[in-house]
Design goal:
Helix content is 31%, strand content 37%. It is of the alpha+beta class. The model has no long low-confidence stretch (mean pLDDT 95).
Length: 149
């Protein structure tokens, strides 16, 4: 099998961004649709109403200026895998309400196992490497920073 070129990697990354706008799972799925794909795996990470037994009312995500470059790097690393057709990943910043999408990712591949593995790797890498900070707000007006890589 021939190695994947930089141009091929770039073509496989359909989106890799940080956004202050709502994230759209349907758009992500459509973007990675490919006639070579037998599988599309998606992830919709949403804001939940609790954390460690405490009620959460909303979240605020802040980012370091290098966050966009890091998410693009992660997408390129995953897209370099020969067995993938396309990759889409976006993380939201700003104020998010309960149920809002914080992280959306989609991957297509000829076979499901490659799609599942790539999707899990993207989510894990974004959560561990991208410098985005989460501030949880509670009903009493207090707040707490958490999950800061």
């Amino acid at each position: 099998m021939m190695p994947v070129t930089n141009a091929e990697i770039a073509a496989k990354v359909r989106e890799a961004t940080i956004s202050d706008q709502p994230l759209d799972l349907d758009a992500a799925t459509a973007a990675v649709n490919d006639p070579r794909a037998g599988a599309i795996a998606t992830f919709f990470g949403q804001v939940r109403n609790h954390d460690h037994g405490d009620e959460v009312t909303f979240l605020e995500y802040s980012m370091h200026p290098t966050a966009e470059a890091e998410i693009k790097q992660i997408a390129a690393e995953i897209a370099a895998r020969d067995e993938l057709c396309a990759v889409w990943v976006a993380h939201r910043v700003g104020t998010l309400q309960i149920g809002d999408a914080a992280l959306v990712a989609a991957v297509s591949a000829p076979h499901r196992q490659a799609a599942f593995q790539a999707l899990a790797d993207i989510v894990d890498e974004v959560k561990s490497r991208v410098p985005i900070w989460k501030c949880q707000h509670f009903p009493d007006g207090s707040h707490e920073w958490s999950n800061c890589p």
